[in-house]
Every structure is written in C-alpha cells, then in structure tokens.
Specification:
The complex is a heterodimer.
Chain A: H1 12-16, E1 33-39, E2 45-51, H2 53-57, E3 61-65, E4 90-91, E5 97-103, H3 106-113, E6 117-122, H4 129-135, E7 144-148, H5 151-156, E8 160-168, E9 180-185, E10 191-195, H6 200-211, E11 218-222, H7 237-250, E12 254-257, H8 260-266, E13 272-281, E14 287-297, H9 305-314, E15 325-332, H10 347-365, H11 369-376, H12 398-405, H13 428-438, H14 441-454, E16 458-471, E17 480-487, E18 493-497, H15 506-518, E19 525-527, E20 530-531, H16 546-573, E21 581-583, E22 586-589, E23 592-595, H17 596-605, E24 611-617, E25 622-624, E26 629-631, E27 635-648, E28 654-663, H18 671-690, E29 721-726, H19 751-762, H20 779-789
Parallel strand pairs in A: 1-12, 10-11, 14-15, 18-19, 28-29
Antiparallel strand pairs in A: 1-5, 2-4, 2-6, 3-5, 7-15, 8-13, 9-10, 9-12, 11-20, 13-14, 16-27, 17-18, 17-24, 21-22, 22-23, 25-26, 27-28
Helix pairs in contact in A: 6-7, 9-10, 10-11, 15-16, 18-19, 19-20
Chain B: E1 5-11, E2 14-20, H1 26-33, E3 52-55, E4 58-61, E5 74-76, H2 78-84, H3 88-96, H4 106-117, H5 126-132, H6 144-164
Parallel strand pairs in B: 1-5
Antiparallel strand pairs in B: 1-2, 3-4, 3-5
Helix pairs in contact in B: 3-6
The chains are: A alpha+beta, B alpha+beta.
Amino acid sequence: MSVQKPLPHDAAALHVTGQARYVDDIPVPANTLNLAFGLSERAHAEITGMDLSAVRAAPGVVAVLTAADLPHANDVSPSAHDEPLLADGAVHYLGQPLYLVAAEGHLAARKAARLGRVRYEDRPAVLSIDDAIAANSRFEEGPRIWARGDPEAAIGGAAHRIEGAIEIGGQEHFYLEGQAALALPQEGGDMVVHSSSQHPTEIQHKVADALGVPMHSVRVEVRRMGGGFGGKESQGNALAVACAVAAAATGRPCRMRYDRDDDFTITGKRHDFRIHYRAGVDAEGRIEGIDFVQYARCGWAQDLSLPVADRAMLHADNAYFLPNVRIENHRLRTNTQSATAFRGFGGPQGMVGIERVMDEIAYRLGRDPLEVRRVNFYDPPPGGGLSAPRAPAARPPEDISAKVKAGEDVSAGRRRTPYGMEVEDFILHEMVDRLARTADYAGRRARVAEWNAANAVLKRGIALTPVKFGISFTLTHLNQAGALVHVYQDGSIHMNHGGTEMGQGLFQKVAQVAADAFGVEAARVKITATDTGKVPNTSATAASSGSDLNGMAVRAACDTIRDRLAGMLAEMHQCDPADVVFEAGRVRAGGADYSFEDVIARAYTSRISLSSTGYYRTPDLTWDRIRGEGRPFYYFAYGAAVTEVVIDVLTGEYRILRTDILHDAGRSLNPAIDIGQIEGGFVQGAGWLTTEELVWDGSGRLRTHAPSTYKIPACSDRPRLFNVDLWDGENFKPTIHRSKAVGEPPLMLGISALMALSDAVAACGDGSVYPALDAPATPERVLAAVGRQRGRA
Amino acid sequence: MSATLPITLTVNGESVSADVAPRVPLVDFLRETLGLTGTHLGCAHGVCGACTVRVDGAAVRGCLMLAVQADGATVETVEGVSDSGEIADLQDAFHRHNALQCGFCTAGMLMTAAELLDAGGPPPERAEIREHISGNYCRCTGYQSIVDAVEEVAQARAADKGGQA
C-alpha cells in the first residue's frame, strides 16, 4: 500500500537544493518586460485627472496602460464583476491599481509607477465597521438571518444570561512567495500564463475575457506556489490579467510580481469581524437560547465575501448544540482592500464567537470552561459510527421536553446544527477525553491555579478548545474534480489533476493514491504541473477539498486503466477480472505472475488504451444559503487543542508554553504531511489571534504593510512544548481511502491560545470582571485587560 | 539609467566579473544576472530571511546587501553548498523530517541553520536552535519539524566528532 505511508513531500529534494521553480524563477526570453501598478493614494475619490507623461518618459518604460487602453473586459473579480483591473473613473480603496507600467526590469517598472500625477476629488470614505453600519454600506440587500426555535423566549427564561461582543481582527496571508505571474504570447493570439494561483481555471477565464478570446486560446500552468492560504484563490487574477493584456499589447512576454509592501497594500486579507452575542444558559452552563449578530468587514468589492460570511454563520455553533438560535450576519462594504479567502474562510471567525461565549459562561458560573464545553457538545451518534466506536451516554429525560420546545426531531437528539444538518459522527467526546488525559489537563489546571496564587508578576492560563469544521464548498457545484492519467509503454505513470500545490503536500498524497491503485511504488508516479490544457473546468484548490476531490478523480482514472488491464489478463487466463491482483509492482492473474512493466507492454501491443480521464463529484449535498437549510457539508473534521500560556502582568508580554493537539484526519493518506498541516495550521491560527495586527490609519492607509510592522509567528513564538497526535479513526463517509480533509481545520486549534490568555488575565482579578479579550490579543491588549482586572480602565 | 560599477567576486567557487548598477541588491544580482534562483526574495527589507546567503563565511540578507558591496567577497548560495556537499546531512534531515512545505523559505533557512551548526562548541540545545532561526520566517510548518531536523544534525555531528576524538 502506498497510501497511509509517511512519505516526505514530493518536491523536498528540489527544495533543499534550490532547484524547485516558482513563477519568478522560470527562465524567460531576453525581451521579457516587467510590470508594476500605479496605485491610488486615496481611499475613495473621483479621478479628475491623470498625467502619466513622467511615467512614460521614465527610463526603461515601454508601455503604460490605463483603463481606457483595455480593449476588452476590465474585470478581475471572481464573483460580481465589480473589480476592474485598472480603476475606471473612481477609486475605492487606498492601494487600488490605477495604471499599468511595462518596463525593462522590475525596479524600473516600480520606480516609473510612482511618477504618475493623479488628481482626486475625495468622496467620504467608509473605513470601519462602525462607519459602514452608520452609512448602511453593505453587500446584499440586508443581513442574512438564519434562525431555529425561539431564542428570545429561551434567553429570557434561562437561569443565567450573558451578553457581550468581541472584535476579531483580520489577517494578512504572508505567503512567503508574493503574488506573481508570467504571460508568454503564442501564435494566433493565444496566451500561455504561469501564475502563482490556487485557481488556474479562473485565471484562464479572466485572461480570456480580458483578451477577448475563448478560453481555449489561453492555457494556464501552475507548478507550485510558495504558500497560498486562500490568498491566491482570487488575488492572483490582477497580475495574470495584467501580464496577458500587456503581452498582447506589446507582443513581448510580460511578468509581474508584487513587492511585499505592494502585496500588503493591494491584496485582500482575512475579514475582520465584530460579533455580538446574547445567550441564556441553565445552571450547568448549557445553552438554551443564543443570538449572534456578526459584522464582517468585506472591503470595497464583493470578491468571495458572501460565502465567507456564510461560513462564519455555519460555524457559529462549532461543536455545540444550540437548541434555540438566531444568527444575523452583515456583509459590510468599506473603502479598504477587498477581504478574501483565508484558511478557514470565515469559519474561524464564527468559531471564535461561540468559543468566546463558552469562555464567558464558564467565567460567570465559576465553572471549568472544559466542563461547560462538554455539556454543550453535540450528542454522539446513537449507535456509534465508524469513527465513533464508543456508545453514547444516556440522556436524562428532561432533555426531551427541551427538544420538543425547540421544535426538534426528538429521535435526532442533540445532533442537528442550526442549519438542519445532522451531525452523524460526533467524536469530540472521546477525542477530548483522550486529549485531556494525555495532556493532563486537570492536573495542569490545578498547578496553574497554584502557580497563580504564588506569583504576582507572571500569571499562567490554560484552555482546551475543540474544532468541528464542515468539509465541502458551500457553493455546491464547485464540489467536482477531474484528473488525467497516462501509463507510458515503459510502465512509468504520468498523473495530472485540477488541484494545485502550495506546499500542503496535495501532489504527494494524490500520487500515493495513484500508486496504490496500480500496486506500485509512489516514485513510479510522475507528478505534473496543474495545467488547464490537461484537466479543464477545475475548482480552486480551497475549502480543504484538494485531496478529497482530486484523490477520488485520480483514483477513478487509474481504476479505468487498471480495469482495462485486468480485462486483458482475465481474457488471457480465463479468470474473473476481479481476481487480477495489482500489488508490490507485480500483477497476478490465473496463477501467472507478471511485472507491472510486462503487463503494460502487452497492453500496448494489444492496442489497449493506457490513458484515461477521471471525474468525481461529492454526493449527498443540498444547500439553500438564503434559508440556511440543508446539508452543505459531506462530513465534519474534528480536532482539539490544549494550550498553556504565561503572561507578564507588568508588560502584557506572553509566551505559549505548551500545546497538545489531537486531530482527526480520518485514516490519514500521509501522516507525516498531515501532521505538518496541523502544526503549521495551529501556529498560523495562534498568530492570527495573538500578534498579527492590521492597522489602518484615518485616511484608509494600511500602516502595517511589511513584516517590520506586521508580526507573524517566528520560531521563538511557537509553543516550547508541542505535542501533536492524529486520532486513530476513519471517515464514516466513503472518502478517498476513508481519509479526512486537513488543510483548514487545524487553524482553528489556535483559538486555544486566545482562550488560555483569557484564563491568565482572569487570574489577575477577583472573579468580578470578565477579561473580554479582543483579537488579536497583542501584548498591548493583554496589558489593558490586566488593567481592567485591577480597576484601571 | 544610473552608471554601473565593475565588480569581481567569487560565487560558489567561480570568479565572476560584472558591471552592476549601485542600487542592485545582491539577491537580485544572484537571481537575475547569474540565474541562481534557488535563493528567494520574500520581503525585500531584511525581516523574513528567505534571501539569506553566505558572504565571506557569514550568513547575510541578500536583500540588504548591495551587489557592489560584495566586490571582492566570496559568496555562497544554496546551489553552491549543494554542489559541495557540505550540508548534505542537513538537507537530508530537512527532507526526511518534512522541514518544509511550500519550500520558499528553505534555502534561507538552510543557510542560517548551517551557520549555527558551523559555530563550533557543544551541539546547540533546542532553545538555542529556536532562537537562532527566529530571523527566518516560515509560514507553513510551524517550525517544529525544522527544529527537529537541525537538532538531529547537531547531535549527529557531535557524535561523529566524539567518535573521532
């Protein structure tokens, strides 16, 4: 079996020797031009004049293009056609591209791009969530609202009520490789584009529209990205389209990369949110009714904000049954970068909302937050699922009346999400039990309390938080994938699919699937660049779906070829094709034993096709996003983390001392790669909620536009002790080899760091003031929160 | 364009002479002029460490040093240390430990880790490794596997030395 092996990343040998090529490393023809955008200096203004004579006269400049010079579509939006490549008459954020410079050399292009003289007539800029609420500046006609039961009555009648709000900052992707593209003009107006993109088909589509040609005239290739994290789902469109239109205009190859400051200034980031909550709970802290109002700051263009905001609503429950619930979500339009996809895609923000509620309930009731979380968990499956072997605990009878009150199907128990989907394999009871045991949660919690009683300056905190994350694109039609597999005469295998490699190890995992199908070593499978000319109409590599979708499509292609081979051998040996065995590089049929190469050579001379496409679409999905009802997800992935921190009450500085994680990747296709995703996801999530702070000034200028001012986790910031384990279950759904998606879910394990900081801050007070830490919980915010504990506002 | 200056330096063991504009950073010279694209440019102002190369034996940021400042110097990049085999053990450890995902930080990370491993003295503790590579950002791995790989090589080299003594 090639699957389930902890094989290293397929390109590791190339990476450690510097041979792996990214877009900007591709050797280019000598006449290649470099591009740069001239950017808006205003957040919202009419353009009353643009004098580009100095730009055109600058050394090395070959061409300068404005919106008026674009012969076809001036649009790089992935959704609502509201995002011009180059501003047309007005600017909507500070940093918006105004004009495009093509020059001999990257530096020459950037220098020239600064020389434009633009006259603006300012318009009122809507920058903050408060600005947008006041101006009713939004996408869609009003908020989306999903509800079940009677939350008002449930909150009103509950033994305890809590109410509050949390601010949750955005996050810059900080992919180490900035955005980049290269366009090479071909005969007859065709264009070949290399793009650092998670979505080659969309690049192809947008380039074709911009050139006024059918999609068949554009071929897009993506070998790898130097990190994506959602930031290259739509944000690469502008560079690829710019390269293509400039290449078409000049007849010369064009390439473009954003300097890091430009990347920060131009591209979208994770949506920042404000979430108001009101909840009514019983004496144990069990939620009886809850009301969320979520505000998402979407920036100036729609981009992917609607499904991002939907996913925040879809994760407002996280792992908890909410019998009476109302979720209202506002998609606010502001004059800032157009917020976009980022690992978790809104899910993390929704999840921080409910975890905040759990934390505050525990604080108000004086209970262990883990106990409050446990009493709110969804029920385990009635009979135990494949991934949940343990029988469920019996529910006390009083719960049944509560369910009836909430209009619930009693037989479903506490298993229905607010959007009506049954949680069929809830395994967090067992996972959390195991993690609490292996990480000694109870013992350490007691020792943290002892420490805090004995120490005045350094206070510790600990928290265990769970993750339940829905797997599938919520835009149902995106849940499809294609593959193309060739076996050559010598028995070597060429594999291609629509997924893109951004470091997550997708190519390696899918190659293991292909090797497994033929019973050969993974090394026999050549992994090839994603190419719109090989597999068409692909979805973005996003929503954690890469291995699920492309693994199944590749297996379908391999199975088709293998069935042909088995049929050939079955006929030769008069046996059942099902009895032909492909294993360890050998093929056995009717007592005969061949090498794989022998079988392939025979198939070729027998005129049997050794090439096949494969296709997969996820079954069982139905979703009405307006009503908020259906089954948007094929299944859920689970995880849990315990994090312990220490804060310095005099400065607000802190360290993560230890993190223990237990994460569910189903029956992992590659445990080494999946553990890497979990470690990296946790650190990225903890970074989002602790040190990564985006600051815009009053003019709408992003002041944190480089790593000098925007702080992602360094090695010294990661937990001193870091224990990561995989849950040993398997997916109850027939996914590829019963694995589960692993890209996004671990990011939300980072919420444990925020909650541990909250715990440490709470230790500074007398139990009367809830810490109410906003995110990111920078040292400044921690210090202010400590001050509140001690009566200093 | 601004005037150029003649420079002569040794890159990966070969003497190189070129006329370069004073404003050109060393990393651009290596990548654009010499085609040594194994060294990557991440932030262009000395914070992320992706462009780390070795100049006269010291790890430096290729984006902060100008090519003209390297006149007369000996420069080594990931391509050079790969060819010489001097960090083969470290490269192998990065490979086996999955101390990379997207790989964009890897060349710089290797150069920085090699500097620590070459510093002499007792093998560095994990805390020292963490501290030393904290000037090199990795956005993918969470650093765990990188520290594991460096620690393994440090201990293996120390054991080798002990065996020879």
